Amino acid sequence: MKTIIRGALLALWVVSGSGQAQDAEFDVGALIDRVVDAYGGSALTEMRNYEIEEAYIGPNLNQSWSPALTDLNKNNLRLIHDIEGGQAYFESYFKSRGGIFPNLIIASGEDAWTVNLVNGTYGEAQSGDPYTFGGGTMRTTDTLLALELHKGRDTAEYVGSASWLNRPHEMIKMQFPLSPELTVFIDAETHLITRMTRENPQFGALDYVFDDHTEVDGLMAASKVSFSVAGDPNLIGTGRRLRFNRNLAPDTFALPEGLEAEGERIDVSEMVINRLAPNVYHVGQNAGFSIFVDTGNEVVGCGGYPGLTDRLAAFQEATGSHKRLSYQVVTHHHGDHLGGIDEALSLGATLVTVDNTIGAIRDLSQLEPESSRFLSVNQRLTLGTGKNRVEVYDVSTIHSLSNLLFYVPAVRTLFMADHFGSPYATGVPTANRNTVSMAAALEPLDLNYNRIVTAHNARVYTARDFERSVQSFRDFDCPDDRPLCSR
Ligand SMILES: [Zn+2]
After folding, report:
1. Residue 402 Cα, ligand 1 centroid: separation in angstroms?
2. Crossing angle, helix 142-151 and helix 28-39, to 10 degrees?
3. Residue 83 sits in the same domain as residue 223
4. pLDDT at position 12, please?
5. How far is ligand 1, taken at its centre, from the CA of residue 31, in Å?
6. If you measure from the C-alpha of residue 417 to the centroid of ligand 1, how many angstroms do you get, rounded to a whole number?
């Protein structure tokens, strides 16, 4: 009882900003020591390598075909991390209505490759840092949270006690590489981590729940893990296998044989500015790109990833035009593409969308936009007039019930999201079911485009790139020598 009262008071102190008081009261280092002991002591602190294999099923939250019905996906993945050798291997198969999306990344010392199992090619990976491509998987493993807690003990901060599943817990805020701060819940009796939570600025609280802790290779680890977004289950673990400190096969981090090299990866770490015409630009960074058109009186944009304000600023700087963003065309209802929606509203833009996407926008927006901030498209809409006009078309594909295509007839350029793309400067982009479905939807529109730009990639594609991609499509079947895929 005494502990609980003290914890509650401490939590208040932290909230009121008196960060020093807690250290005098609570020995966070001693608690971390108990966590380290509970997880295996030196077997944890001197961990050389680990392997995580997991199968998940989950709702396609904010990524469903229809905003009215959440469909399901499967994700099978494996992460092997050779900590002492600085090498990592990540393999995953995401299975959804768009087919199977394999992903294979191998980082071995100097080199980091991404392997395209559909085409049998390999190219330079965006990053060789295991925390970049494996961080999400690492966070699903309580043993690795305990290791990071130990490594970052100098910055760990006690935030109070709490009851979780009717058991007393202590909470510690901790750092994790390339991630917002994490809060771990430590069982006051067993000193095992049973829950971790962190805040996502767009989606709210992300929760990881660890259950059925068992001993594996001399360490403790949860054998059941689930992941929730804003209180709703998002990934439900259906099978987990862990290994620690094993002898790794020498070829674990070698590139598979018989692959062909891709062209150069386009550097998207800085803002990329593609000038398509004096008044038409494709601008973006990392995985978020927009198109902007100065129609003479105003600016019309499309591509709603977070960072819209910065992309618009880059457009304004490049053109010297500071006209208002009057219209922002919303490509579709998926949450990632609505990440910049509040930026668009704050910039004063009217959101061009379809009726059934308005609910998804309202769900994610913090700004409670009035109905007058929406302009609904019924099949097609023209923004601006004459030569500088933008045409917007609504098409349905396997990716989304509704997709708004942004077409600029004067420069014969089409902007789309999520159906087509490649991170490389050259070569035929790999098609999937989304790509062929978009090709079928485009045909009856008979648009005269000769260039395509997209919401995720820096490259300016030709119509021929798209055509060749569609022609080369084949559905991915799980190869016999990759059992993880068929699980
Ligand atoms: Zn999408």
Report:
1. 10
2. 140
3. yes
4. 38
5. 44
6. 7
Q: What's the pTM value of the predicted model, to 2 decimals?
A: 0.86
Whether 116 is in a domain gets the answer yes
Residues 296, 335 within the same domain: yes
Q: What are phi and psi of 447, to 5 degrees?
A: -75, 150
Residue 90 alpha carbon to ligand 1 centre in Å: 23
Q: Cα(200) to centroid of ligand 1, in Å?
A: 19
The number of folded domains in the chain is 2
Same domain, 225 and 88: yes
CA of 218 to the centre of ligand 1 (A): 43
Domain annotation covers residue 422: yes
> What whole-number distance in Å separates Cα of residue 78 and Cα of residue 173?
27
Q: Measure 166 CA to ligand 1 centroid, in angstroms.
A: 39
Rounded to the nearest angstrom, the distance between the alpha carbon of 253 and the centre of ligand 1 is 32
Instruction: Specify if 476 maps to a domain.
Output: no
Q: What is the CA(333)–ligand 1 centre distance, in A?
A: 7
Identify the DSSP state of 463.
Answer: H
Residues 212/195, Cβ–Cβ less than 8 Å: no
Q: What's the domain range around 307?
A: 272-471
Alpha carbon of 418 to ligand 1 centroid (Å): 5
The dihedral built from the CA positions of residue 140, 144, 146 and 152, taken in this order, carries a sign that is: negative
Give the CATH number for residue 182: 2.50.20.10
Ligand 1: distance of its center to the CA of 272 in Å? 22
Ligand 1 centroid distance, CA of 338 (Å): 10
The total number of residues shown for the chain amounts to: 487
Q: Output the pLDDT for position 24.
A: 55
Tell me which residues of the chain have a pLDDT lower than 50: 1-23
- Ligand 1 center from residue 329 Cα (angstroms): 14
pLDDT 10s digits, 357-384: 999 999 999 999 999 999 999 999 999 9
For residue 3, give the nearest of 160, 193, 197 by alpha carbon: 160
Distance from the alpha carbon of residue 385 to the mean position of ligand 1, in angstroms: 29
Tell whether 353 and 426 lie within a shared domain. Answer: yes
Does residue 212 lie in a domain region? yes
Give the residue ranges of DSSP H helices in 16-100.
21-25, 28-39, 42-45
Q: What CATH number corresponds to the domain at position 278?
A: 3.60.15.10
Using DSSP's 3-state secondary structure scheme, residue 33 falls into helix
Q: Are residues 243 and 357 in the same domain?
A: no
